[in-house]
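Fresh eyes needed here. Kindly weigh in on this sequence plus C-alpha cells:
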Amino acid sequence: MAAALVLTSFAFVAPARTAFSRGGLWHAFILTMIFVICAMYHVCDTGLSSMLGLGVAETCPPALRHMLTLANHGGAHFCMLQMAVLVLARKTRPCSGSAIPKCSSMQAKLMLRCFRHGTSCS
C-alpha cells in the first residue's frame, strides 16, 4: 500500500515532460518540484524508507514531516489554482491567423490599451 502512494507521485512526471517539450519551462519546473515533494512526503509519511531498508532513520523528524506536509498540500492547492486560471482565463487572440503573431505597431498599441482597461478588443 505504501509503495502505491509513492507511485501516485509519478502522475506529475508526464505533464512536466510535456510542458518541457513544448517550451513551458516554468510549468515543467513547478510540476517536477511537486513530484519530488509529493514523493518525499509519501516516503516520509508512510515509513517506506525503513521498510525498504534505505539506510535512513526509522522515521522522519517531526519538523521535516511537518514541512513536507505543508509543501505537499501547498503544491496541491497551487496545482488547482493553475488549473482554474487555465480554464477560466480569457484567451488572447493573435493579430493574424499564424502561430506566431505579427502585429503592426498600431495593432500592438490597441491590444495593449484594451489589456490595460480590461475590455474586449474585437
